[in-house]
Amino acid sequence: MRELRTQRLLLRPFRPEDVDDAMAYRDDDEFARFLPHIPQPFTRSDAEAFVAVNMATEGTNSPTFGVVLGDTLIGTVNVEVDEAGQSAMLGFAIGRPWWGRGLATEAARAVMVWAIEAFDLRRVWASTDDRNLGSQGVLRKLGMQREALRARDHVGRGGEPVDEVVYGVDVT
Ligand SMILES: CC(C)(COP(=O)(O)OP(=O)(O)OC[C@H]1O[C@@H](n2cnc3c(N)ncnc32)[C@H](O)[C@@H]1OP(=O)(O)O)[C@@H](O)C(=O)NCCC(=O)NCCS
Predict the structure, then answer these.
(1) Which of 48, 139, 141, 165 ranks highest by number of CB atoms within 10 Å?
(2) Residue 99, pLDDT score
(3) Residue 14 within any structural domain of the chain
(4) How many domains does the chain have?
(5) Using only C-alpha atoms, what is the Rg of the chain?
(6) pLDDT averaged over consecutive 10-residue blocks of the chain (172 residues)?
(7) Which residue puts its alpha carbon closest to atom 15 of ligand 1?
């Protein structure tokens, strides 16, 4: 895993000093609305664990990049590679202060392009809560198409059943 640069962003491995920034953007109900696995409130110990887990992904086939704007860590982009299947799942999250500026698309595109080459991928896919229109906007801009609906896939933040939608693209 190396550093990637885009027009506005640096994508790099996590570092111990990312804890404060991670806590700042992840301690936010609205950020975590469609991500029920993220604890709310998001405490310092949650942030420390999050940074440690992400640091440990460096050099694996499921790396998480920290998304850095200026001097601030504002989010993540990660891939989970299935080497035998030559496919990867793409994930991304950007803190609320930076929404609506095309930054998630810019960051995710850079990691997707890198991963296709690095892991010789034939397919990239992602899935999200069917209500998460922002995420689906990013996936469409990355060239993915809606492929399937996993009805009642998991339980949402409020205990509601959640339909998960799958997007994907053939990158051969
Ligand atoms: C979803 C998320 C990544 C979008 O980030 P972003 O930087 O605001 O996205 P972009 O600015 O790159 O937007 C991409 C497209 O989606 C659209 N979009 C973004 N947020 C939207 C929303 N809430 N409703 C409808 N469309 C939205 C944009 O308009 C844009 O399309 P356009 O250029 O044609 O206008 C961000 O809101 C986020 O991180 N949310 C919390 C974590 C999360 O849900 N991650 C995804 C998990 S699958």
Answers:
(1) 139
(2) 98
(3) yes
(4) 1
(5) 15
(6) 93 98 98 97 98 96 97 98 98 98 98 97 98 98 98 96 98 96
(7) 137
CA-75 nearest atom, ligand 1: 39
- Would you say residue 169 lies in a domain? no
pLDDT for residue 31: 98
Q: Is residue 131 part of a domain?
A: no
Contacts of 97-101 with C-beta under 8 Å, sequence gap 24+, read 97/25, 98/69, 98/74, 99/134
CA of 167 to the centre of ligand 1 (A): 15
Sheet holding 72-82, edge to edge: 4-5, 10-12, 64-69, 72-82, 87-94, 123-129, 161-170, 145-155
Provide the pLDDT for residue 2. 81
Domain that holds residue 112: 4-125
Residue 34 lies inside a defined structural domain of this protein: yes
Q: Residue 99 belongs to a domain with what CATH number?
A: 3.40.630.30
How many angstroms is it from 84 CA to the middle of ligand 1? 31
Give the residues surrounding ligand 1 with Cβ less than 6 Å away. Answer: 31, 34-35, 92-94, 99-105, 128, 132-135, 137-138, 141
* Model-wide pTM > 0.85: yes
